[in-house]
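Comment thread on ticket #2218

A.B. wrote:
> Attaching the input chain for the structure job we discussed in standup.
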Amino acid sequence: MESFNSRDFSDAGLPTTFVQDNHSRSTRGVLRGLHYQYPKWQGKLVRAIVGAIFDVAVDIRHESPQFGEWFGLELSAENRKQLYVPPGFAHGFCVLSDVSEMTYKCTSLYEPADDASVLWNDPDIGIQWPIPEPILSSKDIEASRLKDLSPLTVSP
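C.D. wrote:
> Ran it. Output below, let me know if you need it in another format.
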């Protein structure tokens, strides 16, 4: 399987430079997100290499006509789909299989001081998560509501 090809990404208008690769392992029912980095945004190319996840991107750019809208799809080792989460979007996922391992390529380095979150079940976003009672970290339980975020912009 070819998981990245700079020519194909360039032809599709996607970034071709990634500076960090991450590998995450979680168990059934775990939900992580909705995470983002600001002001040093990260774009992320996400895929599941073991098991299955429901992966979500939420537009949190205040100047965007799609502000607050979300998109989600199942990524699995079997379907081999990937999702590119652009800068200006919060990212989250929940684990659908007993175990899931995912990798994601990032367009900028992780900066702990820029780490932030939007509440996973914010009613103003209305994500339809496919698990009834997720396992959450304290970071995700205490995340901000979308309406409480200071205006976030993405520089060209």
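A.B. wrote:
> Thanks. Noting for the ticket: The domain at 16-137 is CATH 2.60.120.10 (Jelly Rolls).
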